[in-house]
Design goal:
The protein is an alpha/beta fold and 706 residues long. It contains 29 helices and 15 strands.
């Protein structure tokens, strides 16, 4: 099986699209570039499909590498036959490969090895042949002064048990039974049952559920509870069903030998097969649960990164606090610090009047256009305080999520950006910048610190990291980046750039001033033609002499756009955003060897609204003024809220207090819901009704108002 056939067998993608995509990937083209600018070659594959091809390609190569390692090991042992090599060469299933390798795998000395050393393998073979000879006559030949009849038979059964465990057919059939019928069962660890930290897992103290139907979040919760020592779990099937299958597979007669084989089968299952297959099946279920949790995390992250930006405005940002005061920073349109200080409007200082005067003065002095308040401790009180101030202009007041701001403020990125300011100032700056451009600010933070995942610390860390990186790359390139204002962190995610090249771009910008065109990017040290090809269309240059530099039209299509304009007797700048004239163009008239019909249609669409930001504009949202703490909640209240996390079992809603409320999946809408993200999105404003308030456990149950 070649690479293309393997990928097609694991996807719904055509061979021609797979071949074209693999060719482009081999030419060091990035996934965003291929998805956007090589649609005609790939058959209009999106980034997800291209990522799948890339992943399956790496998987194929890993399997092939494992094959070569297995073949080499068996050959060095002198056991590689033509038939075995053919079976290994033909297999592209990792479990099947490991089953073929199992008899030759290097391992610690086993009971079967000890029996072989005593010369009992011939006895095992004779018993397995299931002849009509009596066991007594067979075993008599192997009895010695140091080995009686019972010990000889036990040794033979140990060898047979190992053979049975290594039988590919038995392992395959046992797997199928486990996959279809296994249950996961839990028991509480009595010594820890009454510990306070154990109570959050109380529902799993005695639990049983089909492993192939258990929701991902429940399996991950059970495994976490076990890792923390509160419960013990086991994967079980009907033992008799598996033993019956094994006996039918091996026993072909009703002789004395068959009785010995039955005993070997029972031992093989209990000691060898059941532990191995149950671990396999649990790991398989864990992998699926990981994939589900990672997919939810990635979807949440993408929605968070696509949050509405306010744009380039002068912002006064506040990181609220009580005893330590509220850290205030004033930022210019580019997000640079103009001023910072601390005010104390709340208890215990209660310098409210002085703080009001200070805020009013800062707004006037720095021509502030909007105020951004972090949603942590003292957020509601600070919002109320700000709204009591009589400003001389209309000011929009926003409350923004500060999740991960403390992580950013202590990071190397923050230290490099603001070496002369402490963590409190950096945190406030992050709160302000999140309002003007959430994407540009959030890419500086490890996604796992943003807090929009489900069991993120329990899933495969390598898979999580890769998927979140792909999500950030996909999102950054879908929005585009301003070449003259983007930070090094943001530029690093642009197609074809990377961390080192991003640093070179920022350094060049610092030394030479703003880029005047996309072509100026070629002047950056070590940025070659390939990098320019991959990156150019994802960056934007405002006020460039060529207006296409502030669009998603690729430079390789500039001449084509000029041709379109000339066909209508227009200049290129006269064609841009001229919907009436663009509608007169026929895509098929402009197809060439490099750009096909799909590419032409994308160009025309972009020309209609060049450089359009796909994100919605930021809007003001206000929580219910009556609710400032959990004790203010009453059952039956209908409240506004913002979805701040989505999981497989429901969504969490920010009500403007420290604790978020849960809307269980069953309470999202009338009728069955299989996917929470089909109903709500991250940062969506919703209306909810309070169903239950548990102050002691800090839990709020909500239902969605439809």
């Amino acid at each position: 099986m070649n690479l293309e056939s393997y990928i097609q067998g694991h996807s719904q993608i055509s061979i021609s699209s797979i071949s074209a995509t693999l060719q482009l990937l081999s030419e060091d083209c990035t996934i965003p570039f291929i998805a956007r600018y090589r649609k005609d070659k790939t058959g209009n594959l999106d980034e997800v499909a291209i990522e799948e091809i890339s992943k399956l390609s790496k998987q194929y190569l890993e399997i092939d590498k494992r094959k070569q390692s297995i073949l080499k090991s068996i050959d060095e042992q002198g056991f590689l036959t033509a038939d075995l090599q053919q079976k290994i060469d033909a297999s592209f299933d990792i479990q099947a490969l490991e089953d073929l390798y199992l008899p030759y795998k290097k391992r610690k000395k086993t009971k079967a090895d000890a029996a072989r050393e005593k010369g009992l393998e011939p006895l095992a073979k004779m018993i397995m042949s299931q002849g009509n000879q009596s066991i007594a006559s067979l075993v008599r030949k192997f009895v010695t002064a140091d080995l009686d009849e019972d010990a000889a038979l036990q040794g033979a059964r140990d060898i047979m048990a190992e053979w049975i465990n290594e039988n590919i057919g038995i392992r395959r059939n046992a797997r199928k039974i486990f996959q279809r019928k296994a249950t996961i069962t839990t028991k509480v660890v009595k010594a820890k049952k009454d510990e306070e930290t154990a109570q959050k897992y109380k529902q799993y103290f005695e639990w049983e559920e089909a492993l192939n139907r258990i929701p991902s979040h429940r399996l991950l919760a059970i495994l976490r509870a076990e890792n923390e020592g509160f419960i013990k779990s086991s994967v079980q099937v009907d033992k008799d069903e598996v033993l019956d299958m094994m006996e039918k597979f091996i026993i072909k007669s009703n002789t004395e030998s068959a009785k010995q084989i039955e005993m070997a089968i029972s031992d093989s299952y209990k000691r060898l097969l059941e532990p191995a297959i149950s671990n396999e099946i649990l790991q398989e279920a864990k992998d699926k649960a990981d994939d589900k949790a990672i997919a939810i995390f990635a979807e949440n992250l993408q929605q968070l990164l696509m949050a509405s930006p306010l744009g380039e405005k002068r912002i006064l940002a506040i990181d609220p606090g009580f005893r330590t005061g509220c850290k205030v920073v004033c930022l210019d349109e580019k997000g640079d610090i103009l001023h910072n200080e601390t005010i104390y409007p709340h208890a215990p200082q209660n310098e409210t009047t002085m703080a009001m005067k200070k805020i009013k003065s800062l707004v006037q002095s720095f021509k502030i256009q909007a105020i951004s308040i972090g949603n942590g401790t003292a957020s509601r009180e600070t919002e109320h305080f700000i709204k009591k101030i009589g400003f001389d202009r209309d000011l929009q007041v926003f409350v923004v999520s500060e999740a991960g701001a403390s992580v950013y403020s202590a990071s190397k990125i923050a230290r490099d950006e603001f070496p002369n300011y402490d963590v409190t100032v950096r945190g406030a700056v992050s709160i302000g910048r999140r309002l003007s451009d959430p994407l540009a600010e959030l890419v500086k933070i490890d996604p796992q610190s943003i807090g929009v995942g489900q069991y993120q610390h329990d899933v495969n860390p390598a898979k999580l990291k890769l998927e979140l990186e792909n999500t950030v790359i996909r999102t950054v390139n879908s929005v585009g980046v301003n070449l003259n204002t983007a930070s090094k962190s943001l530029l690093a995610f642009v197609s074809g750039i990377g961390e080192k090249m991003a640093e070179n771009i920022v350094n060049y910008r610092s030394e030479n001033g703003a880029f005047k065109s996309r072509n100026d990017l070629k002047k950056v040290p070590r940025l070659g033609e390939k990098a320019f090809q991959q990156a150019a269309a994802f960056i934007r240059v405002k006020q460039s002499q060529n207006p296409l530099d502030d669009s998603a039209v690729h430079p390789e299509a500039y001449k084509l756009v000029d041709k379109m304009a000339k066909s209508l007797s227009l200049k290129t700048e006269e064609l841009i955003a001229n919907k009436e004239k663009i509608a007169l163009l026929k895509p098929e008239d402009f197809i060439n060897d490099e750009i096909g019909i799909l590419g032409i249609k994308d160009i025309l669409k972009e020309l209609e609204k060049p450089g359009l930001d796909p994100r919605k504009s930021a809007k003001i949202f206000e929580f219910d003024a009556r609710i400032k703490k959990m004790d203010d909640l009453q059952i039956g209240m209908v409240l506004p809220g913002i979805v701040n996390n989505i999981t497989a079992f429901g969504c969490f809603v920010d009500l403007g207090i420290k604790e978020s409320g849960l809307v269980h999946i069953s309470q999202l809408k009338d009728g069955f819901v299989s996917d929470v993200s089909e109903v709500v999105k991250l940062h969506q404003t919703v209306e909810v009704k309070v169903v239950e308030v548990d102050v002691q456990r800090k839990r709020i149950q909500l239902t969605m108002i439809l």
